[in-house]
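User: Need the bound-state model for FAD-MDL72527 adduct:
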Amino acid sequence: LKVNAKIVIVGCGISGIAAAHRLVKAGFHHVRIVEATARSGGRIKTGSLGDNIIEIGANWIHGPSEENPVFCLARQYGLLDPEALTPENQAMDIGGHPPWVPNVFTSSGRKLNIEDVAPAVEMFAELLEQSSEFQSQGGEPYASMGDFIRSEVRRQAAEKWKDVDAAAISTRLHVVSNLLKVECCVNGSHSMDDVGLGAFGLYKTLPGLDCTFPGGYEGLIKNLMSELPGGLVTYNQPVQCVHWSNTEKRENPVEIECEAGERITADHVIITVPLGYLKKHHSTLFRPPLPLHKLHSVQRLGFGTNNKIFVEFDSPWWDADCEVIYYLWEDEDAMVDQVPDIQRSWIKKLFGFTVLKPTERYGHILCGWIAGHESEYMETLSEQEVMQGVTQLIRRFTGNPTITPRRILRSQWFHDPWTCGSYTYPGRGCSLQDLENMMEPLPTKTSQAQPLQVLFAGEATHPCYYSTVHGALLSGWREADRLISHYSSISPSELPRS
Ligand code: 6YU
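Assistant: Bound-state model below.
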């Protein structure tokens, strides 16, 4: 199969790279990637804090095992630690929530014992598991994940914890608030009230204990890019408008208009821009506009913000075996995941920190996690102000007024003009149909016009691995395969002439 079809890919994140890789390997020789920024990788972005490598975007391989193509590629390129490659690691089934060792602090400066928090943690985990079942049952007793969790905790607490004293109950309900904030980060949503209950179970996990890239996630991008022909990517070239359904120009029915004025004609264009960008720019990005059913799915699916705040210390103030630090705000209403006064109290949305391990590699670095509008507000503050907020928080919760971070660095995904947030979640009222609409090529009716003019890849188009690197990668392969099988099934006389 060696065809002359001209294919333009918009966006050089993992999905665009994966599509190009597959098409070039299949013999297509007019493949081009047009990228808005000066770099490849998109939301895979490795940076540094002092001498240490840190991940500003994607962090883990979620479910590193044989079925995960990111795991297989990373293994093939030799990018993983030996522990991640062991059969034991691959076989661990954690259902998306790694069993990290926690340290829990309260706003009055107490460090809690695991027994104080365990009943709420267990109840919450069971509810997450149960919520995934509504997907197959087809009924939604509550409008959102937030409604479901709060109502069920209230009901079960009245039943199971009726002999527990009020102070202990209060602590448990604050644990639930904290876990709701954790889930906001996992889902990239402002509140769990924004996440649909029925669609929550669409997300599928793979076996394997999540692992990181010791040399940085971008190593995966570098290896894949090195296998593509040189000059295939044009950088600093934002696409402004995709003119499709150009009936007069049957030879090259698509025209890609770039911000700098360049116009590129093509037979097919694969759009991989993030859902956040699509939500903001769909009305100018497509001529004619997106069909209504597709537009409605772009609007219904959620795309919120999850940011990281890396903080380095001279010495640790957490336990040696600690993997995650949680904060409970005792003055907050029970079971809330939204901060009422964002400008004053944005820091209350930060659920806590994960500890970068192993210490020999990273020293004493914590990664703070904050989602939602509070996270978007945090992005507008200076690094100094964020440092101050974090320092005050840690001093208050540990009761140690001398703790001082050495340096910090935070991500700003909401204000990144080419991303506009972090990743996709199923909003209220969403269903599998929305993700299917996202991936449907244009034109949708192929009776007259040339088929497959505009194709869609990217994490937001994967039916069960949305929000992940493996979902994005698979979506790029899927759209490449769609074109490959299209050209395999038509006769040579119908192939585009060069
Ligand atoms: C994962 C993880 N991870 C943390 C954070 C973030 C994300 N993800 P890209 O955006 O990469 O590429 C598009 C390109 O298009 C880009 O280069 C643009 O510049 C360009 N572009 C835009 N407009 C353009 C224009 N007009 N013209 C030209 N070019 C244009 N995934 O597997 N493990 O640990 C994390 C995390 C802070 C921000 C993540 C993680 C998500 C991935 O990073 C992301 O999906 C892919 O990189 C996207 O690739 P792409 O090609 O689609 O777009 C139970 C349950 C609940 C459900 N959810 C649970 C899942 C948990 C999700 N985990 C995420 C967590 C972290 C921490």
